[in-house]
Amino acid sequence: MSRKYDNKTISFCPEGRLRQVEYALESIRNGNSVIGIKTNSGIVLASDKSMSNTLGENNIYSDRIFLIDNHIFCVTTGAGPDAHILINHARLQTQLYKQIYQDLIPVKKLVNVLCDIKQQFTQSGGKRPYGTSFVFGGWDSFFGFQLFRTDPSGNYSGWKAVAIGINSILNQSILNEEAKNCLDIYSAIGTIVKIYSKKISKINLSQYIDLVTLRRDDLNNILYHRFNDEEIDSLYMKV
Amino acid sequence: MSRKYDNKTISFCPEGRLRQVEYALESIRNGNSVIGIKTNSGIVLASDKSMSNTLGENNIYSDRIFLIDNHIFCVTTGAGPDAHILINHARLQTQLYKQIYQDLIPVKKLVNVLCDIKQQFTQSGGKRPYGTSFVFGGWDSFFGFQLFRTDPSGNYSGWKAVAIGINSILNQSILNEEAKNCLDIYSAIGTIVKIYSKKISKINLSQYIDLVTLRRDDLNNILYHRFNDEEIDSLYMKV
Amino acid sequence: MSRKYDNKTISFCPEGRLRQVEYALESIRNGNSVIGIKTNSGIVLASDKSMSNTLGENNIYSDRIFLIDNHIFCVTTGAGPDAHILINHARLQTQLYKQIYQDLIPVKKLVNVLCDIKQQFTQSGGKRPYGTSFVFGGWDSFFGFQLFRTDPSGNYSGWKAVAIGINSILNQSILNEEAKNCLDIYSAIGTIVKIYSKKISKINLSQYIDLVTLRRDDLNNILYHRFNDEEIDSLYMKV
Amino acid sequence: MSRKYDNKTISFCPEGRLRQVEYALESIRNGNSVIGIKTNSGIVLASDKSMSNTLGENNIYSDRIFLIDNHIFCVTTGAGPDAHILINHARLQTQLYKQIYQDLIPVKKLVNVLCDIKQQFTQSGGKRPYGTSFVFGGWDSFFGFQLFRTDPSGNYSGWKAVAIGINSILNQSILNEEAKNCLDIYSAIGTIVKIYSKKISKINLSQYIDLVTLRRDDLNNILYHRFNDEEIDSLYMKV
Amino acid sequence: MSRKYDNKTISFCPEGRLRQVEYALESIRNGNSVIGIKTNSGIVLASDKSMSNTLGENNIYSDRIFLIDNHIFCVTTGAGPDAHILINHARLQTQLYKQIYQDLIPVKKLVNVLCDIKQQFTQSGGKRPYGTSFVFGGWDSFFGFQLFRTDPSGNYSGWKAVAIGINSILNQSILNEEAKNCLDIYSAIGTIVKIYSKKISKINLSQYIDLVTLRRDDLNNILYHRFNDEEIDSLYMKV
Amino acid sequence: MSRKYDNKTISFCPEGRLRQVEYALESIRNGNSVIGIKTNSGIVLASDKSMSNTLGENNIYSDRIFLIDNHIFCVTTGAGPDAHILINHARLQTQLYKQIYQDLIPVKKLVNVLCDIKQQFTQSGGKRPYGTSFVFGGWDSFFGFQLFRTDPSGNYSGWKAVAIGINSILNQSILNEEAKNCLDIYSAIGTIVKIYSKKISKINLSQYIDLVTLRRDDLNNILYHRFNDEEIDSLYMKV
Amino acid sequence: MSRKYDNKTISFCPEGRLRQVEYALESIRNGNSVIGIKTNSGIVLASDKSMSNTLGENNIYSDRIFLIDNHIFCVTTGAGPDAHILINHARLQTQLYKQIYQDLIPVKKLVNVLCDIKQQFTQSGGKRPYGTSFVFGGWDSFFGFQLFRTDPSGNYSGWKAVAIGINSILNQSILNEEAKNCLDIYSAIGTIVKIYSKKISKINLSQYIDLVTLRRDDLNNILYHRFNDEEIDSLYMKV
Fold it and tell me: Which intervals hold domain Proteasome alpha-type subunits (chains A, B, C, D, E, F, G) (predicted)?
C-alpha cells in the first residue's frame, strides 16, 4: 500500500516519512566506505577506492576527496556526479563569504548552506534528493577542529568520529570503542588503517584507500595533506 | 478509497481534509519531545536530544534550539532541514521589521509571517508541507511573555504550557495538572526536569535534554540563557 | 465511477459539478460554529472557541475574528491558515481603496474582491480551493449595515441572519424563526446566547464563545466592540 | 471506455468531442432559469432568484444581472464566481474600447472578446472551462437591439427569444410559439411572467424573479431599468 | 492496447500516428457541410447553416464565413470558438504583412502561417489541436484564384473543388464529376445549389445555406459578395 | 511490460531505447516514397505525390520539396506540418549564416543544426519528436555534391543513393544494385523513373511523382531545376 | 514491483538506484565499440563504423569522432544526436576557457564541465539522461596524456586503456592483459587492430573502423591525426 508515496519527492507517506529521501539514503549505504576521526591535533579522513579495474587511474583523479578551501575539505560517498554539483556550490559559497566578510567561512556555516540546498531538493516537485552524503572536516577560530556528516535529507550533525557508506554500522561500532584512544592524529591514522586492513589485503594498502589529514603546525598554520601511495603503504608498516 | 486523496498536497479528500498535512503532522508526533512553560517571570523551553551515538557532538551544534532575536527563540521538532529553512525566513523577517519600524518584531507578528509561509506549501501544487512544528517563546511590550506552537498546516495557538513531539499527549496531560503550580521560572524548570527524568536515567541529565530560558532581570532587560551541561546536571540535584 | 473527477480542482464531473469545491465545503461544515445577525441598529457576530486544552490561551490570540477596517470585520470557519492569507488580501485591498478613492471601501466591493481570489483557486491547475468560509459584517453609506457569507467556491450572498460551520443547519432554522424578533442589537445578542447555551454549560459562557458587535452611536460613529469575558458571562445573566 | 477522455480539458475523445466542455454545459442546465426576449422597442431579460432561505437578501445583492455599460447588460446562469470573473473582463474591455475608439463597444464585439477568453480555457492544460452561460442584451448603432447567448465552449449565437438554465427546453418551446406575438416590450414582459407563473405561486412574484429591460425613449436615449418588487408584483396583476 | 496513446497530444502511438489529431478530425466530419469550387472567373464557397431553432438569428451573425482581407476569405467547420481564435491570428498576419511589405499577403503565405500555428498545438504538451478545418478562397497576383483546405494537423492542400464537414465524402464524389463542368462562377453556384437542395426543402433555401463569391470585375477589381436571402432563394429558381 | 516506456518522450525503456522516437520512425515508413541519387555531375531527388483526389492541385503547391537556398534543397516524408516548422528553421539558419560569414552555409552544417533541433524534442518533457525525415541534397566548396538523410531522432548520415518512406527497403535494395551505374545525372533520373514506374501506370508519370535536380553548368554555376509535367512525362519516353 | 521507479528520471527506486540512468547505460552497451589506449608517447582511439549499407558515406561524415580542440578529442558511443549536443557544449566551454584564461583548457576540467551537464539531466524532472558515453583523450601541461571515460550518470574516471560500447566486457579483459605491452603508440595501434580484426574480415579493415591518434612530435607539438583508408588498411599489413 505504501507504494503510492515513494515515487514522488514531495509527498509524505501516511507514517509521516519521505520515502524518496530514505531511498536516497539507501544508495549511500552501498557507497564507498568513509571514515573520519577528529582529534585535538587535527582531523583524519579516509575512503576506500572504488577501483573496479586494474587499468583505471583513480590515484590522480580521485573524485571522492575535495578541498573546499585551505581550512575545509570533505569526503563523499554515494552518487559522484551529485557530489560534484554540491562541491561547486560549496566552493562558490566559500569564496563569496571571503569576499563579503574578508574572513574564512566557518565550518558550520558552510555545512549549513549546503544542507539548505539539499533540503530544497526534498520539498519541491520535479526534483529528486541529492544522492550523496559528505563528511566535512575543517578548522575555524570559533570551534577549532570540527567533523560533520550531512545526509541527503539536509540533516547534519557534529561527530568525534564517524563512518558512512558501506559497512558503516560495523565501522561506527569499532569507532565507538577506539575513538577514545585517538589522542592525536597519528593514533587516529592507525585506527583507520586497522579498520580498513581487516577487509583488504594488507600489503598494498595504497591501492585501496585514500587518506587525508588536516592539522596545525607549530606556527598554528592549518595544513592539508593528502597521502601519496608510498606514505599510505608505509603507514601499514607502522601499525 | 481514500488513497486517491493523500498523495497530492493540493486536493481535499471527500471528508474535507488535507491528507498530506495530516501525514506531515504524523512525522512530528515521532519527533523529539519539546516542552514549553510560560510563567510570569519568564519562559522555559526544553527538548530531548536525538543523540543516537555516543560519538556525536550534539552539545555544541544542536539544531533544535534557535535564537531568532534577543527577545524571541524557538524549539523545533520534526524534519530538521525543513526547520532550518523556516528559521532563515524568521531571522530575515525579524531584521526587516527592525529596519522598517526601528523596533523589535512582536512575537505574534513573527509567528504570523512564518505560518503564512507554511500555508503556501499546503495549497500550491508541486510542493509538500513543511514537516516541522515549533514552540516559540518570546517577549514584547504588547503582551509580555508569550508561548506559541505552530503546525505544518500553518495553524498556531497561544499556550500557557505546551508539549509537542513524541509522548506529547502524555506530557501535555502532566502539564495540565502541573502548570498551575509553575509560578516562577524555577518551578517551571523543576516541572520539566520531572517530566523528562521519568523516561531517562537521572544522573547525567545533560546528555539527554537541552534547556533554555528567557526572563527579565531587575532592570527589565530580556535575558536569554542556554544551560550548559553542569547547570543541567545540577538542576536534577535540586529537584 | 465518479472517483476520477474529484481529485483535480480543475475538472468538472459528468454532472457538471466541481468535486474539490464540494469537499472544501465539507471541511467548513465541521468547522467552528459562526452566527451573525443584522439588525437596524447594528450587527452581532459570534463564534464558539475551538479550545481543546485548558492551557491554551485562545482569548488573546483568537484567530477566528478579524477587524478588516473600522467599518468591516469578519468571522471565519474552516481552515485557519487559509483564512489568514485571505485576510491579508482583504486588509491590503481595503487600504488600497482608501488610498485611491480617499474613501472607505464599500462592504460588497471588498467581498467581491475576496471572492474573485477564491474563484481563481477553483479554476487553475496545481491549486486547491481555499478551505474557509467567512461571515462579513460591515457598514457603508450606500446600503448601511450588511451581512455577507462567502464560500470556498467564491459564491457570496447577503443575509439578515446566517449560521455557518458545525450545526449550521440547525442554527439557521432557529434563526429563521427568531431573527424577525431581533429588532435591535441587544435582542440579537440574546438570541445568539440562547442558541449557544443549548449546547454548552451555561455558567462560564465566556470560555466557549467569542462575541463582537458593530453599531452606530448617537453621533453616527461606527463602533466595533469585542466583548471580554466578564461582559460575555454577564450576558448570560441577562438572558 | 470513454472515461479516459473526460477528465482533461485539453483532449478530444475518439468521437471528436470535448467532454469537459459538455460537463460544464451540464452545470448550466441545472442553473437558474433565464429568459430573454428581443422586440422592436427593446429587450426584456428575466431570471428566477436562487433564494434558498427566507433570511437571504437577494434583492439588493443579486449576482445574476450585470450592467456592463449603459447600452449592454447580461444575465448569467451556472457558476456565479466564474461569471464574476468574466464580467470583470467585459467591463474592462468595454472601457478600453471607449478609450481607444471614443465610441460605445458594439454588442457583438464584446460578446466576441468574452468568448475568445472562454475558448482559451477549453484548449490550454491546467485549466477548466468557465462553467457559466450568459444572455447578453444590448443596443448599438449597427444592428439595433441584439440578444446573444454564450456557452462555456465559447460558442455564441444571436436570438429573437432565448431560454437557458433549468427547464430551458420547455421554456424555449413556449417561446417558439409566443415570441412572434411579442410585438413590443410590454407584451414580452407579459410572456415572461406567464412562463414563470406556471411554476411559482402567483401572488408574490417579486420574491421569485428578477426583471430588467433595455429600451429607447422618444428621444432615442437607451434606458436600462431594473424592476423593483412593487413593479414586479404589479406586473402580475396586468397579466 | 492503443488506448494509452490517444489522450495525450504529444505522443505517437506505436503505429506512428497522433491519435489526438485524428480525434480532432472526427469532430470536423460531424461539422457543418462546406463546399468550395474554383473557376476561372472566381471562387464560390457555401456552408449549410447550423440553425437549431427558428428563433435563432444566424443570418446576421453567421460565425462560419470570415472575410480576412479584401482578397481572401474562408469558411470554417468544426469547433466555432477555435476558428475565431485562428481568424484573429489570420487577420493580424494579413495586416502585418501589408505593413511590412506594402502589399497584399499571398493566399498560400497566409495558409502557411495559420498551419504553422496549428502544428504547434499538435506537438507541445498541455495543449490540444485546434478542432477546426477551413476552406480558404483567395486571389493573388502570383497564382490567381486559389482554393485551399486546412486540417487540425496543420496539413493544407490546394483544390479545384472541395467538400469538408458532414457528408463530405458524398459531396466530394459529386464534385469530382461536376467540377469539370463549372466553367464560370454561375455554373459553380448552380452545382452547389444542386448538391444542397438534395437534402433540404427546396423552397426557402436561404434558411439553410450561406453563399459567398469572390470574383474579378471587368476592371480587374477583386469583388467579395455575400448573398442575402433573396438572392439565395432566387438562385434556386434559376437552377 | 514495455508499455510503460513508450508514451513519454523523455524516458528510456529497460532495453535502453526511446520508444517515442521509434514510433515516430514508424510514421515515416508509411510516408511518401522519396529517392535520392548523388552523381558526380549532380543530385536527383524524387518523391511520389500523395494525391488522393483528382481535384487536388498538388502540382503547384507541393509541400514535399523545399528549396532552402540556391545550393541546398530537400525532400521530406512523414508529417507535413512538422516538416514546415523545420524548413522555417533551416531557411532562417541559412540566412543567418550568410549574414555572419558572408558565405553559403555548408550542407553538413545545415543538417547539423536541424538535427540538433530534432534532438531537443526527444529529450525534453512535454514534447514529441518531429515525425518527419528529410533527404537533403546540396553542394558546397568543401565536399562538392552531398546527399544526407535525417531521422526523427536527430541522426543523420551521408549517402550515395538513398530511399526513405514507404517501400524504402525494397527501393534501397534496388538502389544498391543500380547506383553504381548512375554515372551522371541523366542515368540517375532513368534509375528513379524505372523504380517508380514499376508501381504506377507509366503513361502519365507526371501525375505521380515530383522530380528535382541540382547540377553544375559549364560555368560552374549551381542550378536547381524542378521538372514540370511535360518534362516528367517525356522522361518516361526516354527510359 | 520495481516498475514504478523506472519511468521517471527524478526518483530513486527503493534500492537507492536511478533506473533511468541504468537504462541509458543499457543503450550504450549496444552502441558501437570504442577502444582507447594511453601510452607514454600518445593516445590511440578507435571505433567500429556503424555502416549498415554499402551506399552510405560514413568515411567523410563520421559522427563518432570529434576534435574538441587541438589537444583534446573524443569518441562517442550510444545516441549520436545526444552526443552532438554535448560536443557543442564542450567546444563552447573550450573556447570560453581560452578566452578567459588565455590558456588551453585542462583535460579534466573539460570532462568535469560536461559531466556536470550530464548530472543535471538525471536530477531535474521533465528530462531524460543523455544516452551517450565518451572516451576523451587529451594532453595538458599538468598531467600529460590522459584518457577519460564518461557515463550518462555524469560519472567519469581516468584509465590507461578502456573499452566501451558493444563487447566492452570482452574487449576490456583483453586490454587488461595487453595494455601493459603497449609501450608506445605503435604497439597500441597494433593491439587495437588485433582486437577488431577478430570480429571482422581482415582485408578491408578501413571499412570497419575509424582510428585517430594524439601524440607529441620531437618539438613537443601536440599532433592530432585521423587515419585515412589506406593508412588503416596498411596497418593490418603490419600486424
Answer: 5-27
Q: What's the rounded Cα separation, in Å, for the pair D199 and F237?
A: 84
We report the CATH number of the domain holding residue B119 as 3.60.20.10
B191/chain A closest Cα distance in angstroms:
29
> Within a domain: residue D211?
yes
C-alpha grid cell, residue C107: 462592504
- D111 domain residue, yes or no: yes
Inter-chain CB proximity A84 and G154 less than 8 Å = yes
Residues 6+ away with beta carbon under 8 Å from D166: D29, D30, D31, D32, D33
Query: For residue B57, which residues of chain A lie inside 8 Å, CB to CB?
Result: 147, 157-160
E81 contact residues in D (CB cutoff 8 A): 115-116, 118-119, 122, 153-155
The C-alpha of G221 sits at a distance from chain F's nearest C-alpha, in angstroms, of 27
Residues 6+ apart with CB under 8 A from F212: F44, F45, F46, F65, F73, F75, F224, F225, F226, F227
Q: Domain for residue A198, yes or no?
A: yes
Q: Do A5 and B7 touch (CB under 8 A)?
A: yes
Nearest to E154 among F3, F54, F81 (CB): F81
Q: Is D168 on the interface with E (CB under 8 A)?
A: no
Is the distance from CB of G206 to CB of G193 less than 8 angstroms? no
Cβ proximity of B73 and B67 under 8 Å = yes
The CA distance from B55 to B77, in Å, is 22
Phi and psi at residue D227, in whole multiples of 5°?
-75, 135
Sites in chain A below the pLDDT cut of 50:
1-9
Among D4, D119, D179, whose Cβ lies nearest the Cβ of E3? D4
* Structural domain harbouring B230: 11-234
D3, pLDDT greater than 50: no
E237 has pLDDT over 60: yes
Q: How long a stretch of residues is chain A?
A: 239
Lowest mean pLDDT among F12-26, F211-225, G209-223: F12-26
Mean pLDDT of chain A: 86
Chains E vs D: touching, with 3+ CB pairs under 8 Å? yes
**What pLDDT does E165 receive?**
93
Q: Are the C-beta atoms of D72 and D65 separated by less than 8 Å?
A: no
CB contact under 8 A, E16 and F24: yes
Ranges of residues in chain C with a pLDDT under 50 are 1-9
CB contact under 8 A, D127 and C122: no
Is residue B235 scored above 60 in pLDDT?
A: yes
Stretch 84-143 of chain B: residues touching chain A, C-beta under 8 Å: 84-85, 88, 121, 125-131
- What is the per-residue pLDDT for E19? 85
Please tell me the distance from the alpha carbon of residue G150 to that of residue G162, in angstroms, as a whole number.
Answer: 11
User: Is the confidence at residue D234, as pLDDT, over 80?
Assistant: yes
The yes/no answer to whether this complex scores an ipTM above 0.95 is no
Report the domain count for chain A.
1
Is residue A3 situated within a structural domain?
no
Q: Considering only CB atoms, which chain C residues are within 8 Å of B175?
A: 55
F126 CB-near residues (< 8 Å, 6+ apart): E10, E124, E125, E126, G126
Q: Which residue has the cell 554499402?
A: G54
Cβ contacts of A27 within 8 Å, gap of 6 or more: A78, A79, A131, G12, G15, G16, G17
- Residue indicated by cell numbers 471528436: D16
CB nearest G119 (choices: A20, A28, A84): A84
Other CB atoms within 10 Å distance of the CB of residue E54: 10
Backbone angles phi and psi of A47, in degrees to 5: -140, 145
Distance CA G227, CA G217 (A): 17
